[in-house]
Amino acid sequence: MKIQIKRYTSEPEIKEEVLAYEMELEDPTLLEVLGHIKTTQDSSLSFSSGCRSSVCGSCSMRVNGREVLACAYKVQEGDLVEPLKNVPVIRDLVVDMDKAYSMNVRAKAWLEGSSDVALSPEDEKRNERQSDCIMCGSCYSACPVYAVNGEFLGPFALTRVWRYVSDGREEGEEAKIHNVQSNGVWDCTLCNECTLVCPQDISSKADIEKLRATSAQYGCMDPNFGSFGGGFGFDGSPSF
Ligand code: FES
């Protein structure tokens, strides 16, 4: 079996290259392959991992341009392995997720209500998908908006905001909604790329649409509405 890995180092100078590796392994996961290469061929190969069971999210990377969890992905002949996009690469397949994680803080993606009140069974059911997010960063890597606007709050932060906005215990719903208007819910293009790559099958796109609907209930509208041509004049006639 032969695979290619995009290697990157900044020390002593910036160096980027795609290297090929060959091995005899039967039906391995990508994480098993990376471990095998590190222990038998090249100890300098750097990658992140933790749980080895799709729970911690630390082994997220790209194969043939698509985001995967290395511990879950079964390697195919000729695969090209690269680090996540839209985040700084530290070395090889290790990326710096600090900025993406900080979006949870900017978005205030936590419960600001009475956390001592028990969650109702309806809330529990409604929130079970969003609560499964493992913050692997695949959605930020696939997001074309985050690629061009590093201030966009991004998929997993907005999914977590919806998780708490839709929580019956949340007392700061309106403030939470107002907090995600700028570089937030209206900046998403609803392209669905985040949903397609999420290993937990969470649809951030759907969560953002729900945040938009709730925004409208609080009087917050798309700031671009009416400024991109098309729409209706004051007399009700179409204007372009
Ligand atoms: S090692 Fe934890 S998700 Fe892959």
Query: How many distinct beta strands?
Result: 7
Q: What is the number of helical segments per DSSP (H or I, 4+ residues)?
A: 10
In the sheet with the most strands, the strands line up as 2-1-5-3-4
Gross morphology is elongated
Going by CATH, the homologous superfamily of the largest domain would be Alpha-helical ferredoxin
User: Could you tell me the strand content as a percent range?
Assistant: 5-15%
Backbone structural class: alpha+beta
Named once each, the bound ligands are:
FE2/S2 (inorganic) cluster
In the residues, how many domains can be counted? 2
CATH architecture of the largest domain: Orthogonal Bundle
Radius of gyration: 21 Å
> Could you give the distance between the termini?
58 Å
Q: Any idea of the CATH class of the largest domain?
A: Mainly Alpha
Low-confidence parts:
230-240
